[in-house]
Amino acid sequence: MEIHIVDSAETGGIVVADLFEEVLRGAGEQGAVLGLATGSSPLPAYAELIRRHREEGLSFASARAFLLDEYVGLPDEHEQSYHRFIRENFIDHIDLPESAVQSPRGTAEDPVAEARAYDERIREAGGVDLQILGIGSNGHIAFNEPGSSLGSRTRVVGLTRSTIADNSRYFDSPEEVPQRALSQGLGTILEARRIVLTATGENKAAAVAQLVEGGISARWPATVLQMHQDVTVVVDEAAASGLELSEDYRHARTLRIIERGNAR
Length: 264
Fold this sequence. Notes:
By secondary structure, the protein is α/β, with parallel strands linked by helices.
């Protein structure tokens, strides 16, 4: 696990965008398969990727993308659907074809069957090359709440009270927040070849500390990422404030920068 402690969300967005650009440019003709997250955490990275597309010619034309999750019951056009969010905040501003973007269908008549089919669609695409994640204050990634099986697959999940409270700021009232979602499982997420998790703010400090320095536990679902061989964690000073070994991570990061510079 590689830890980047940055001075701002904007700087973190640049670090994350660098990883996306590396994967996009290295994918060749077959194109990269990107795993996209919604919410506030990835927005700085999406803004930087949009800038690189517009100003530097970074192309997504050969890529494909899969979203992490979707609320059960929300139609695509609902203002709080993740289908709409990712288009308004990212897809509509780059050259990634609409047909290349997939997400779980929140209005599927059989959400359980839709979850199984979505898992299969990811497999048929050859898996995700780079997955971006945020993290909830209770340690959830995607909608894998505390208590989720560490080997779980894409499925229908019930949202905890804390997640409903966190997400209620996007709705007129907590009562309007959907109670269920379709979400990639922890086991599904772990199959991505590379993972980058980004977080900002003191409210994420406890979850980040558990992710990086805690034991692997269903109580803090994000800790399952410790089992993955290629995870980058990008956090600001506030989100990193609970890390006991923060100076060690900064030192290790400095050494990696020096080594990469010498290798050029």
